[in-house]
Each structure stands twice: as C-alpha cells, then as structure tokens.
Write a structure and sequence with these properties.
The structure holds 2 protein chains of 2 kinds.
Chain A: H1 3-6, H2 8-22, H3 35-59, E1 85-87, E2 92-94, H4 96-105, H5 118-130
Antiparallel strand pairs in A: 1-2
Chain B: H1 2-20, H2 23-26, E1 38-43, E2 50-52, E3 55-56, H3 58-72, E4 81-83, H4 93-103, E5 110-112, H5 116-119, H6 125-131, E6 136-140, E7 143-147, H7 155-158, H8 165-173, H9 187-198, E8 206-210, H10 228-235, E9 241-245, E10 253-256, E11 259-263, E12 304-310, E13 315-321, E14 327-332, E15 337-340
Parallel strand pairs in B: 1-4, 4-5, 7-8, 8-9, 9-11
Antiparallel strand pairs in B: 1-12, 2-3, 6-7, 10-11, 12-13, 13-14, 14-15
Classes of the chains: A mainly alpha, B alpha/beta.
Chain lengths: 141, 356
C-alpha cells in the first residue's frame, strides 16, 4: 500500500502536531502514574457505577415505572461474566448490552440505548461492579 | 317457593360435587387424624402497579388475571383461597382497588395477608379498611390457621425522618435497599399469638401464614424475620406445624424441628436465589431444590400459584407453574420433612436448576 496515495502520512503528521500543541507544558511519562492518579481514576469509575446504580433502581424514566432491580436485586441473575454467549432466545451470540436493551424494551417498555450511550455504560459498570470477583466464563449458560 | 328451590339446588349441587370428586381425595382421611382432608389455593405477590389515570403495568395485571382464571378451574374446588400479600406495589388506594377489582373474579372465600408493599405508604390503613384485620386466626375442618402481619419493623425506622409517606414506601419497596430494615412480627402480635395458641390442643395441626419467611435466610433482601426464633418457640409444643409464606417469589422449603416451611410463588415476577448475589453470604435451606432459572422471554416463567392439600395434617404443596413443569413438594412421613416428588438427589436436578 502506498501511504501517500491514501493521504495517511500527512493526516498522521497533522494529528501528531495537534497532540503536541494540546499537551501541557510538562511531558507526562505514559508508563508512570501515581497513587493520586489511581485514586482519581477509581473515583471516576465509581461515579459512573453510582450513576448506573441510580438508573438501575428506577432512574431510567421509562413510562411504565418498572425498574431493573425489581427482577434483579443487586443486579443478581444478570450474569455479566457469561457474555458474550449464545443467547438461545435471540438465536445468536450476544453481548450484555443487547440483553440490557431487551429488558428496557420488554418488561420496562422503554426506549433502547445506543451501546455507547453513557447510560448504557453506566448500567454495565454497576452490573459488573456488583459481580466483581467472579471468574469470567464467557459462553456459559 | 324461591327459597325452597334455592335449597334444592344447593343440596343437588353438593351431591353432584361429591359424585365427581376423585376417589383419592374422598378416601384420603387418615384414621388417627381427627380432621377431614381438604385443599385450599394460594395466590401471592401480584405487585399491581399504577402508572397514571386508569393505566396499570400490563405484565403484573396479566399474572394475577391468569392465576385467578386457573384457580377458578380447579376441581375439586378448594375450600378457600389465601392471598399471600403484596397485592399492590406502592400501597396506593388506586392499586389496592384495582387489585381487588381483579380479585372479585375469583370464586370462593379469600383470606388476605398483609405484605410490605401494601403497608408502608399509610401503615396498612387503606388495606385494613378494605379487607379487615391484618392478623387473625380461624379453624377449618380440624386445622387451626393463623395469619400474621410479619412485615413490621423497628419503630425508629417506620417513624423516622421521612420527607413523605411515599418516600418510606419506596425505601421498603426496594428489596436491595442498603438502608432498609428487617421485618418482624413484633412483641404485641407475638403476645396475641401466644394467647391464641393457648386454647389449641397440641395434636391439632397448625398452619401459620405470613408474608415474610418465619426463618432467617438472607437479611440483605429481607428473606428474613427478625423474631423468627421467638415465633418458632411458640409453635414448638404442637405435633404438626406448617408455615407458609410469600415475599421470596421462588420455591423454598425447609424443616426446623416440628415445623415445615414452604414458600409460595409470585404471580408477578421471580426473584433470584440469594446465593446468586456474589457479595454476601446467604442461607438457603439445604433441603430446597431450586426452581428453574427464569427465561425472561416468557413473561410468566418462574411465576405460579399453588394448590395445597391437607390430608395428614401436613401440607402437600402443588406448585402450578405458568411456564414450567408443575412441581409437588410433599411431606415424607418417614423422613419427617418435605420432599420434592421428582427431584431428590443432586443427580436428579436438571441444568436450569443450577443457580450461580
């Protein structure tokens, strides 16, 4: 492949320049981070988990008012550790987000979320947080 | 004239019913047992939910409607029906009225039990206005039945600094609320129970009906009654005791000394077994062989209602499961505990009964 023909080199170069110009005056070393960084990242993560917790417990605003926790207290019986798996009712291998949308559409009678919607990410963060420590068993039924 | 005709029809009806009873039911009275055999039905946990105006959550309505239809078809007719609590989701008059409208289609006498979803909005006021006392006892064909309100809790929680009664209701309606409070029967009702049982002979079969389990399984979801041991102690002198409860939306059974425990199903939705919550310890009775994991694509799956036979003084529980093979959990007189009629050893379990 000729990179010039696809205009990749100039695009890559200009992307690099933009990055350089947007960096703060000091240069962070990419492979080093501090305890403060870890604490901040954990806090960012927990903020999203807490948002997911609220959405899961009646915060989705679906008109029929049914909430996720009515069938899944503490997100139990959601089995995030088994996804992706063959979802026999859909006849294909599905990810957790598709099953979340199935629940939103059916028992909750609500509007589906894009898989990268911040609310979808928050719901998954909460569900996985309640399942932390459980071994991954993708495909398990 | 019309009275005579009515009497004649009534007598004729009784003869006809006796003529169509299955032989096994007619002959099932045991020699040493003073009471007649009979059956009753049990419907529980419908969680009728008001949306707005005259709209209610369709799914939960359908569960109760189906249970009522199937109970109306039971032959022979159950002597009465128990409604095991949580008629409503948030205890509003709209929800209780709508649920009772539906229950109006059920043929036969119904005895109601108070659930926490019926109670924590107005502390059971509207429910009692419609249905009467929340704890009582009655005798039927030689069996003593006691109904308790087991979903009370500490006064400090009930009368805490709630912004509105609905805030309190929603706090208790959330099963996994870390700021919830454990259920209890409480000292006043325990004293009432002690006095009620004082007049009952120890050989009389006793059936105690509550919303929460009168045993301790998992505090995090209130599969729990704080004063369970004290109530069990009051029941200890009786030869045959059965406790029936709702709330848990799943099959559970147990034997503690002389007391058999059975949970009944919900008509609305199933709960997971507590062991499927990885962050806490729980104590599901070892005797219990779990119901099948629910298939969410069938909205009545893992819901159900019950036909209960009282032939020996012990309860034989027949689970009528909406979307699974029915199950029976029958008292085994040799082992002196309830036993599933089909699933006995671990090897008999089927893959959907594995919960994780």
């Amino acid at each position: 492949m000729n990179p010039r023909r696809y205009g990749l080199a100039p695009a890559g170069l200009s992307f690099g320049l933009v990055l350089l110009s947007s960096c703060p005056s000091h240069f962070a070393r990419a492979d080093e981070f501090t305890k403060e960084d870890l604490a901040r990242w954990q806090q960012e993560y927990m903020t999203v988990v807490d948002q997911g917790d609220r959405l899961f417990h009646g915060g989705l605003g679906n008109p029929n008012t049914v909430s996720c926790d009515q069938c899944h207290p503490n997100a139990a019986n959601t089995h995030p550790e088994t996804y992706p798996k063959f979802q026999k009712q859909l006849g294909k291998v599905a990810v957790l987000g598709e099953m979340i949308n199935w629940c939103i559409m059916n028992p909750l009678e609500g509007e589906v979320l894009a898989l990268d919607d911040p609310n979808m990410i928050a719901l998954q963060a909460y569900i996985l947080h309640e399942r932390r420590g459980v071994a991954l068993v993708p495909g398990r039924h | 004239m019309s009275m005579n005709r009515r009497r004649f029809l009534k007598a004729g009806g009784t003869l006809l019913a006796a003529g169509t009873l299955p032989i096994s039911i007619v002959n099932a009275s045991f020699g040493r047992s003073a009471h007649e055999s009979f059956s009753f039905a049990y419907i529980s946990d419908s969680h009728i939910t008001h949306i707005k105006g005259n709209e209610f959550v369709r799914n939960w309505d359908r569960g109760l409607i189906r249970a009522i239809s199937e109970c109306n078809l039971l032959t022979p007719r159950p002597d009465f029906i128990i409604y095991g609590g949580d008629l409503a989701q948030l205890g509003t008059p709209e929800e209780i009225d709508h649920a009772l409208d539906l229950m109006g289609g059920l043929r036969g006498k119904v005895h109601y039990v108070m659930g926490e979803h019926d109670y924590y909005l107005d502390l059971g006021e509207y429910w009692r206005k419609q249905l009467g006392p929340d704890h009582y006892s009655f005798d039927h064909k030689g069996v003593h039945f006691v109904v308790l309100n087991s979903i009370l809790t500490y006064d400090t929680w009930t009368h805490g600094p709630w912004e509105t009664p609905m805030a309190r209701m929603k706090a208790m309606a959330r099963l996994d609320n870390p700021n919830g409070s454990p259920f209890m029967v409480g000292a006043a009702q325990r004293e009432w129970l002690r006095r009620d049982l004082d007049r009952v002979n120890r050989n009389t079969p006793v059936v105690v009906i509550s919303h929460s389990p009168l045993q301790k399984i998992f505090k995090g979801w209130n599969f729990w009654t704080e004063d369970a041991e004290e109530i069990q102690a009051l029941l200890k002198r009786f030869k045959t005791v059965t406790v029936l409860y709702g709330h848990v939306h799943q099959i559970q059974y147990n034997q503690i000394g002389n007391i058999s425990f059975h949970a009944v199903m919900a008509t609305a939705w199933p709960w997971p077994y507590p062991a499927s919550y990885a962050q806490a310890e729980s104590h599901l009775p070892k005797l219990t062989i779990e119901m099948n994991r629910a298939d969410p694509f069938f909205e009545r799956d893992a819901t159900g209602w019950q036909m209960i036979n009282l032939q020996t003084g012990n309860v034989d529980m027949h689970y009528l499961l909406a979307d699974n093979r029915n199950r029976s959990v029958v008292f085994d007189r040799k082992l002196k505990r309830p036993l599933d009629a089909r699933y006995r050893a671990d090897a008999d379990r089927i893959p959907p009964q594995v919960h994780f």
